[in-house]
Amino acid sequence: MDRYVARAKSAFFASPARKQLLSTVEAFHEAGKVRPRAANAWLQRLAAVSAHDVQQLFAKIPNDRITPVAVEFALKMLALNRQRLLALHEALQ
């Protein structure tokens, strides 16, 4: 799962000349360069959301709408992306 999340691409390019898509974290980082206060605000909000909070949201989804495997996958993916974004925030401080 770590590798899957690390390889995830956004729908954004760094520039019109660059043919390679930005990773999801790179896209956030680039957007943060344009609007650093907004990036900081979102990262602070992200830091305030616990794994328990996210689990509670998924627990509200009816069982006929999502499988336990899909819940597990989504929770792991969200946790890893949260970790990556907060690590970026720490590195930039």
Describe this structure in words.
- By secondary structure, the protein is mainly alpha-helical.
- It has five helices and two strands; from the N terminus they run αββαααα.
- The two termini are 27 Å apart.
- The model has no long low-confidence stretch (mean pLDDT 93).
Keywords for this entry:
mainly alpha, two-stranded antiparallel sheet, 2 strands
Number of helices: 5
What is the helix/strand order? HEEHHHH
Strand order of the largest sheet: 1-2
Query: Major β-sheet, in short?
Result: 2 strands, antiparallel
Strand-residue proportion: 5-15%
Number of strands: 2
Poorly predicted sequence stretches spanning 5 or more consecutive residues: none
Instruction: Assign an overall shape.
Output: globular
Quaternary structure state of the chains depicted: single chain
Q: Please state the average pLDDT score.
A: 93
Class from secondary-structure proportions: mainly alpha
Helical content class: 55-70%
Distance between the termini: 27 Å
Q: Total domains, how many? A: 1
Q: Report the radius of gyration as a whole number of Å.
A: 15 Å
Compose a concise summary of this entry.
The chain is mainly alpha-helical. It has helices at 2-6, 24-34, 36-48, 51-59, 68-92, and strands at residues 9-13, 21-23. It contains 5 helices and 2 strands, in the order H-E-E-H-H-H-H.
